[in-house]
Specification:
Protein name: 4-diphosphocytidyl-2-C-methyl-D-erythritol kinase
EC number: 2.7.1.148
Oligomer: single chain
CATH architecture of the largest domain: 2-Layer Sandwich
GO molecular function: kinase activity
Pfam family, one: GHMP_kinases_N
Strand content: 25-35%
Number of strands: 12
CATH topology of the largest domain: Ribosomal Protein S5, domain 2
Distance between the termini: 24 Å
Pathway: Isoprenoid biosynthesis; isopentenyl diphosphate biosynthesis via DXP pathway; isopentenyl diphosphate from 1-deoxy-D-xylulose 5-phosphate: step 3/6
Helix content: 25-40%
Mean pLDDT: 95
Bound molecules: 4-diphosphocytidyl-2-C-methyl-D-erythritol, adenosine-5'-triphosphate
Structural class: alpha+beta
């Protein structure tokens, strides 16, 4: 008697968003990327990515923030799956994404889904990928993708894909102000170059003061060290963000920056109660589209569920 081939149970991976606590942008490299020195923190806004064996490759997107995310081969999650297929000859999967990370907001939502898909496929098809293999696949998909697998707080160099651990104490509380529309990451880097107007830019070096601040666990210390070299470019493309940053500070944030390439803005607050107060004040002010509270650091992409029935 022959038995039917075993179909593995679907796997769900939860993956966080990121904020750059420091984003130092160096010169444009010959390959078009910019040399970076950045410190990432994973924060508790999540996408859930479920990967299931299927007759054909596909992706669907749901949730309150699903608008504008492609449900075709342009989706970074599906691109991640097809990349794995070129290396491991796996059978097709359907990917279902529930989006809780703002889209095109500078919080690496697409990269997060790619990271989650790599972790989910590793589990679904028992690929037994080691950390280095996962990181190699991740960096092929995008500069932010390796960090979304690692999570926590980490330093990124190269084009952002080379990670090193950072000693960070405590939990930090954030309020994120979501903006109308998104910003294209390449357009923000191009605007950064335009604003720099060929000036000589040194190779970026991480700031010792930020590392010390992270070791104290004190949000006041960290707030003083938040910085983002892309902020001027984001503000140049989206002047309305200046008003949001000013409002956040006026309503009690310890520090505020544009998140990555924007247009989401990130506000560091004293504690969870201060986060509620700021979220209420920003919402009432009418200058932001929506707000989300989160804390960090949190874990990178991890399996939360494999159906066993
Ligand atoms: C702004 C950040 O989110 C900060 O962490 C990242 O630097 C962007 O990372 P990402 O979205 O994963 O970006 P990638 O998919 O690798 O690259 C998209 C585009 O962003 C620009 N890019 C990205 C990373 C980098 N170090 N230099 C760049 O100039 C390039 O135009 C590139 O073609
Ligand atoms: N799974 C996905 N989730 C979100 N956007 C996706 C996805 N796949 C492809 N995209 C496309 O990528 C664009 C950028 O979306 P994403 O949310 O990754 O931006 P981002 O957060 O600014 O990225 P980053 O911070 O890495 O620069 C979207 O406008 C969308 O068209």
């Amino acid at each position: 008697m022959t038995s039917a081939p075993l179909v593995p149970a679907p796997v769900t991976v939860r993956v966080p968003a990121k904020v750059n606590l420091e984003l130092l942008v160096g010169p444009r490299r010959p390959d078009g990327y910019h040399a970076l020195s950045t410190v990432f923190q994973a924060v508790s806004l999540y996408d859930d990515v479920t990967v299931a064996a299927a007759a054909d490759w596909g992706v669907t997107v749901s949730g309150p923030l699903a608008a504008g995310v492609p449900e075709n081969g342009d989706n970074l999650a599906l691109r991640a799956a097809r990349l794995v297929e070129t290396h491991f000859d796996i059978d097709p999967v359907h990917i279902a994404i529930r989006k809780g990370i703002p889209v095109a907001g500078g919080m690496a939502g697409g990269s997060a889904d790619a990271a989650a898909t790599l972790v989910a496929l590793d589990h679904l098809w028992d690929l037994d990928l080691d950390r280095e293999e996962l990181e190699d696949l991740a960096s092929e998909l995008g500069s932010d993708v390796p960090f979304l697998i690692a999570g926590g707080t980490a330093m990124g160099s190269g084009r952002g894909e080379l990670l090193a651990p950072v000693l960070a104490r405590g939990t930090y509380h954030w309020v994120f102000a979501l903006a109308e529309g998104g910003l294209s990451t390449p357009a923000v880097y191009a605007e950064c170059d335009r604003l720099r107007d060929d000036e000589d830019v040194p190779d970026p070096v991480p700031t010792a003061a930020l590392m010390s601040a992270l070791r104290t666990g004190d949000p006041h210390e960290l707030a003083a060290q938040l910085s983002n070299d892309l902020q001027a470019a984001s503000l140049s493309l989206r002047p309305d963000l200046a008003e949001v940053l000013a409002a956040g500070m006026e309503y009690g944030a310890l520090g505020g920056i544009v998140s990555g390439s924007g247009p989401t803005t990130a506000f560091l607050v004293e504690n969870s109660e201060a986060g509620i107060d700021l979220a209420v004040a920003l919402t009432a002010s009418g200058v932001v589209r929506d707000v989300r509270r989160a804390s960090g650091p949190v874990h990178g992409a991890h399996v939360i569920h494999q159906r066993t029935d």
